[in-house]
Amino acid sequence: MARRAAYPRGGGGPGRCGVTAPVPPAAAAGPTTRDAPAGAVTTAVPRVAIVGANGHGRWHRRSVAGLHAAGRLRLVALVDVRPIEDEPAAPVPPGVSVHTDHREMLAAARPDVVIVCTPPHTHLPIALDVLAAGADLLLEKPPVLSTAEHRELAGALAATGRACQVGFQALGSMALAELSAALGQGRLGTVTGIGTVACWQRPDGYYARSPWAGRRSLHGRPVLDGALANPLAHAVMQCLAVAQTVTGAPVRPARIELERYRVRPIEVDDTATLRIVTPGGPPIVAAVTLAGEDFVAGEVIVTGTAGRAVLEYPTDRLLLPGDPHPREVPGRRGLLENLLAHRADPAGTPLIAPLTRTAPFTAVLEQVRQAPEPTLLGGDLVTVTGSGPERVVTVPGINAALRRAAGQGALLSELAVPWAVPPVRIPLAALDD
């Protein structure tokens, strides 16, 4: 009996996900570019499907809706193990088929591009099925959970000649591009450190949204639904992107130093400081929490000998040396639009977030997954407000401590935070993309 994958990313529960033989071809219901040779320029309107159409998948449905209306793509199928939720901003167009199994959809709808927005531990087997079926891929972050999975997916991409864009949408920010240009012009002098701080708040209901929420593993497969790996993964990835700009080469993490904490009986971190040490490049420190006192959307702080820059990556607000205050830098290149442009002109339009660019992130993530259990903070160290699903646990003083960590390139234990524990220090082998 075929096993069914779990698709709701923002809610519901994961089922089991298996890898089967390549999906057999079926009659397509309209024009398709699927039989074009890999790397060839394609001109037909691409057929697009979404696997994991509920939860965060509704964001992708809204993105697809405008492109469908403009005739730049044709939405042909939605997949989810639960009934498709209404999305007023993206009503399901006539003729779109709905499925509960992605393999059934691949055989019936034969899409050219598949958006995969499912729990992280289901990404690899679904992605392999999509590539075997001859479609290109927009894969939500984190793309995979280990370097072994990264190599397996990279091998499948090479074997099939398909393209994979990873859902780190902040990499398409014009604010990041302007920061990169300023670094290239030497406006900050020699970069001595890169840090990021983000202070979010998640209630108890967040950890009840699905059986994989707050879990380290499920049914023997890694999940890692922690702050560093999932909600604040963009903060880490933006720092790695800035580091690549500084050094002019892909980041090769040589060592990570990690402190992980939790304010609930979950299996993963909701608060952490992480230092990434790279040969020949500035150190990177991520200081993040889901138990913050006040909301800090997420800032990337770049310190140099001639000044400091701050990029608030969720809002595209940028402060460069000499600026009196942060300013919004409008414009983002959409990942799906970029993938469609790449399909039409592979040589002339590179992907914004190809799988290869995420190799350093996955290498760090794997070590986070293998690190010891996070330290539990309780008693007088936390403050509890509300009740039921809206119950919130915060750590007094955490915002100020994390800001100091990111700004000074330090871990919490190096700042004499009384409840901090010594870091785990892990050397990393050289990456093979």
From TrEMBL:
Pfam families: GFO_IDH_MocA (PF01408). The keyword Oxidoreductase applies. Keywords: Oxidoreductase. The keyword Ribosomal protein does not apply. Residues 47-168 form the Gfo/Idh/MocA-like oxidoreductase N-terminal domain. Gene3D superfamilies: Dihydrodipicolinate Reductase, domain 2, NAD(P)-binding Rossmann-like Domain. It comes from the Bacteria. This is Gfo/Idh/MocA family oxidoreductase. It comes from Micromonospora humida.
